[in-house]
Amino acid sequence: MQEVTDRLIDAFEAEGSADLIHEFAFPLPIYAICDLLGVPREDQDDFRDWAGMMIRHGGGPRGGVARSVKKMRNYLAELIHKKRENPGDDLISRLIEASDHGEHLTENEAAAMAFILLFAGFETTVNLIGNGMYALLRNPGQRERLQESLAAGETGLLETGVEELLRYDGPVEMATWRFATQPLTLGGQDIAAGDPVLVVLAAADRDPARFSGPDTLDLGRKDNQHLGYGHGIHYCLGAPLARLEGQTALATLLRRLPDLRLAVEPDDLRWRGGLIMRGLRTLPVEFTASP
Ligand code: HEM
User: Fold this and answer.
1) Number of independent structural domains in the chain
2) pLDDT at 68
């Protein structure tokens, strides 16, 4: 993770400016998951292009998206085929080997699993890094506190800080659909069996009955059981990976580009549309260039 993070910063640190979404937050989780799955480095930029097409046109023109999904699935199917012949030390090889009471996954099932991991872990992590860095840039006192703690070689504030950033402005605003299994009354609202229920995680995470000063960013917040990764049996499978990505990305940006600042007025930033995800389209920043 550290190597992927450093490689991305190396590419723009001499410029003195960057769009942190496109040049950093967007490729980082793709390269990280590709490494984990066992996608060779020379093919990872194809993944970056396909994923870019899917995220840019999500909800827009469908042709390009469908083509990119197909290319990605075909690529994964072929890779699984190759790994079956020639296993490596990677997740795809483990998925092929995995068995449940002697029954192995079919190649189709393994490809679908790899695809889900890529998808579930991609835009979410882009937004953790983007929203998180934006919140730090808007809260200079908290950002300074974190920079001082990192300079002292501590990791405690980084760990609680990433959890707080997930609570304060998390990447996933709403959980996926739920359906009531029996009639119930919730918050004065009658819900019949079978009714759909949309849980707004972002509202729960700013609930004044649960969090003191919910609209304040406090990187050292204790008792911070937020719902950024969901709850219960569908709790995020990738939470430990996302934590590692978020911590590595934010700490490395603050360490290597200590005077990082917004290059535009906050009002000029554009956020993605849609109800489920919350994230910036671009995050233009400036900093002192390193040769
Ligand atoms: C900051 C980054 C992430 C956030 C905020 C996030 C958030 C969530 C949330 C809220 C859910 C529950 C949805 C629901 O209950 O309807 C979820 C489920 C899931 N996440 Fe994540 N996620 C992140 C990163 C990842 C990563 C990196 C991976 C995999 C590599 C991943 C894989 C999954 C999977 C497979 C599920 C479904 C689990 C199930 O239904 O049993 N996520 N995530």
Assistant:
1) 1
2) 84
